[in-house]
Amino acid sequence: MTTITSDDFINSIANALQRISYAHPRDFIQAMARAHELEQNPAAKDAMAQILVNSRMAAMGQRPICQDTGIVTCFLKVGIDCHIDTKLSMQELVDEGVRRAYTDADNPLRASVVADPAGERTNTRDNTPAVIYTELVPGDTIEIALAAKGAGSENKSKFACLNPDDSIVDWVTKTVPTMGAGWCPPGILGLGIGGTVDRAMVLAKESLMAPVNMQELLDRGPQNRIEELRVEIYKAVNSLGIGAQGLGGLTTALDVKILDCPTHAASLPVALIPNCAASRHIHFTLDGSGPAHFEPIRLEDWPAIKWEVSDSVKRVQLDNISREEIANWQPGETLLLNGTILTGRDAAHRRIQGLLAQGAPLPEGVDFKGKFIYYVGPVDPIGDEAVGPAGPTTSTRMDKYTDMMLDLGLMGMIGKSERGQATIDALKVSKSVYLMAVGGAAYLVSKAIKKSRIVAFEDLGMEAIYEFTVEDMPVTVAVDTRGQAVHQSGPTLWQQKIRDLRDR
């Protein structure tokens, strides 16, 4: 009988979560670097360069890759001959590890979990509780697989009960475009096939814990039906031309992972869950000899890629900017923003909506007239940081507030992924713009933020309204004042280019 102390268990969970907050798995880095090398769309190539540079910076600085440090999922395989020396439940043990990781003073992680999800949605402040799946297995060790899943990708999860003779490849190919770019492609697609509705979803989530090995599979060729399916889906998805950040390009999926299990004869449950550009997961085993140990970070694992601004990139001063000036911005153009911007996410928008409904004034310091709003929930700063990692959240969630914000005089919005057609139309009417920052480059973006202060709704934590002073913050014009949207034109163009390349 192996005995594992509660301290070893808890500390291993905490250390593992800290590690994956700032260090990508080596296989993911290699896959992203290969995609960057092959990419032909300059905008997509630039986005992947930012992701890779951000990844290396985060590892060096031991600060989060992404501001959304995720909700924790924990898969436990507990040996029946293993004893944990504790009076705590498994949930309490894991949650204590999560709590220590997310409140670590040297690298605080963003608390994103809210209790009472259908009601007050109050932040738990320490990112607990974790989601746990426990299996009793033969043996005297505990195998632990941890993931920290961001909402941008989690919210894009899909499920369908297909007919037994339906094509899974066709369903995935039709479904992926409906997911938009909020999952920060290129990433990994996880599929769960079979079982029941709930089992298929768990299989899809668990499949994302596997190593990235698509290139190896392509080189040697598939050896069973699941591997054949992985290759078919991989090729079909990349033929869609969605590309990095939805800008259009050759690579949308770095890999496709599949787990399956037997199902009812009348059913074909299929779950699809994407992993984002943060791709945080780790595996370790506790055998009673102490806490888990992890390999040192090797900076040589990252490619020698630099993200540099070309001379053609336009620097703009946002303070007192005119609508005549922003009317000259072109879709797909790269800008470097300077000046002050306000931030706001779902909760802040809801609160503003409530104040306006009551006829109440907005808080002092909250004036959107002629301003740009950045959809972000930053990580708390440490040391001399003005702010912690501060990448964009998915803009589509804020579409329902577009008219309200434009009526307040807002001139532009900054976020990630596409906007809905109603928002695009509203931007066109108001002669406003939508700018896209790269999801998965949060630490890199934060270096452009020189000053930060909370101006309203401090009780909302990371969802408070901040005022940022930025210097050369990189963005792409995603919707211009004429309503031209790169998330519509880019994938369409590159889907055709990919067809042309294959027809040669």
Helix-strand layout with pairing:
Blueprint: E1 2-5, H1 6-22, H2 26-38, H3 42-61, E2 71-79, E3 82-85, H4 90-102, E4 114-115, E5 122-123, E6 131-137, E7 142-149, H5 151-154, E8 158-162, H6 168-175, E9 187-195, H7 197-207, H8 214-220, H9 225-238, E10 253-263, E11 268-275, E12 281-286, E13 314-317, H10 323-326, E14 334-343, H11 346-357, E15 372-374, H12 402-407, E16 412-415, H13 421-430, E17 433-436, H14 442-446, E18 449-456, E19 465-479, H15 486-503
Parallel strand pairs: 1-3, 2-6, 9-10, 13-14, 14-15, 15-16, 16-17
Antiparallel strand pairs: 2-7, 4-5, 7-12, 8-11, 9-11, 14-19, 17-19, 18-19
Q: Which overall shape is indicated by the principal axes computed on the Cα atoms?
A: globular
CATH architecture of the largest domain: Alpha-Beta Barrel
Tally of individual domains: 3
Count of individual helical segments: 15
Q: Helicity level, as a percent range?
A: 25-40%
Number of strands: 19
Reported for the largest beta sheet, the result is:
5 strands, mixed, barrel
| Percentage of residues in strands | 15-25%
What is the level 1 CATH name of the largest domain? Answer: Alpha Beta
EC number: 4.2.1.2
GO biological process, one term: generation of precursor metabolites and energy
Domain Fe-S hydro-lyase tartrate dehydratase alpha-type catalytic: 11-284
Family: Belongs to the class-I fumarase family.
